[in-house]
Design brief:
about 190 residues, three-stranded antiparallel β-sheet, about 25% strand, 2 domains, FAD/NAD(P)-binding domain, alpha+beta
């Protein structure tokens, strides 16, 4: 989603070891959590508490607040991009119960997971990828980033090896964003 937003104002490239839609996200079935309240009352604050509790209170709480508050807009954005969410009888995005989602007032489970059948992750990947292509995001698939171009304390791009040929490529940029995932608990907090 970061590449898609960046593409609105600048030339954007994604450098990846894999093809963009080949990731574990494609296997995610349950849904994407957002306190839309389409089927019953829900609040982003309840979502935030559930997230913090689910993270054994180790989460950065300010970051969780932003994530849960902005999740509502993110789901609406995905809908507008064409993600085929399941629908209620009156046309709203359908939501279902998922582990750890609670109404903090009643302490009962709440329907918070927005879903596209049991293929939500796959649909998110496809929707984002199609919109990136439509917005001229350049993809460099099967490249391994091996170094950052740092000059005077500023990152001006990356050096990457093309996995197929071993050829080294230099990608210059005005801004660089690293999206690495949790990387196997390498860091204490991720």
């Amino acid at each position: 989603m970061a590449a898609l937003h960046a593409s609105k104002t600048c030339n954007t490239a994604v450098i990846s070891k894999l093809y963009p839609t080949r990731s574990h996200t494609g296997a995610a079935q349950g849904g994407i959590s957002a306190a839309l309240g389409n089927l019953e009352p829900d609040k982003w604050e309840w979502h935030a508490y559930d997230t913090i509790k689910g993270g054994d209170f180790l989460c950065d709480q300010d970051s969780v607040d932003i994530l849960c508050r902005d999740a509502i807009e993110a789901v609406i954005d995905l809908e507008h991009m064409g993600l085929p969410f399941d629908r209620t009888a009156d046309g709203k995005i359908s939501q279902r119960k998922f582990g750890g989602h609670t109404n903090n007032e009643t302490k009962k489970a709440v329907m918070r997971a927005c879903h596209a059948a049991d293929r939500t992750g796959h649909m998110i990947l496809q929707t984002l990828y199609q919109n990136c292509i439509k917005n001229n995001v350049n993809f460099f698939d099967e490249f391994q980033t091996i170094d950052l171009l740092i000059e005077n304390g500023k990152c001006n791009g990356v050096v990457a090896a093309e996995l197929k040929t071993g050829e080294i490529h230099v990608f210059h940029s005005k801004a660089t964003m690293l999206a690495t995932g949790g990387f196997g608990k390498m860091w204490k907090v991720s």
